[in-house]
Amino acid sequence: MDACHLVYKGFLGYLWSFGKFFVKTYPGKKRINVLGSYNPIKKSLVSFADENNINANSIIKMLHKLRYACKTKPIKVILDNARYQHCLKVIKKAAQLNIELVFLPPYSPNLNIIERLWKYLKSKCLSSRNFENSNIFFDCIKEFLIKSNTDEITKNQISNLLALNFQTFKS
To answer: Exposed/middle/buried for 153, CB within 10 Å: 0-12, 13-18, 19+?
Structure first.
């Protein structure tokens, strides 16, 4: 589980040109915050996106969504070390919901496979795009999140990208 904070602005790719090319963009004051949790076994994403900041209440909301999605099955959630995930309120709620929280070592985002999903989301939805208004920007992100569970092509691309293939070292 991890959060992704996407700012409404122009996302330029690469451009080769003989002259200068100016693209009108926006100051980046609006953003959408996405909280997601990916199950690599079932190949499913549980997420929500809105303009509110991600905080302990958001994490608790996600824990409830995960418990609802998994019914009575045991749940282990891999998290980074964001302060709002370590607070006592979240830890108590996770214990009540019978969810085990596993915190990654500091400065190791490469161990959280959902980071690959955020990179993929940015490449598919945002790269080389300039949105006319923030509503179109928000709709694009929300549509991607819906497609990640419903559209077979998108679902297969994501499951290939988020495979549990970590390099291990022998002693």
So the answer is: exposed
- Residue that has been written with the tokens 């549990």 in this structure: 164
Helix (H, G, I), strand (E, B) or coil at 20: coil
Report which listed range, 9-18, 65-74, 108-117, 148-157, is most confident. 65-74
Per-domain residue ranges of the chain: 2-69+113-160
Tokens matching residue 138: 């928000």
Q: Spell out a b/e string for 38-77, using b for 16 or more CB atoms within 10 Å of the CB, else e.
A: beeeebebbbebeeeebbbebbbebbeebbeebeeeebeb
148 within 8 A of 26, measured Cβ to Cβ: no
Residue 64 CA to residue 1 CA, distance in Å, equals 13
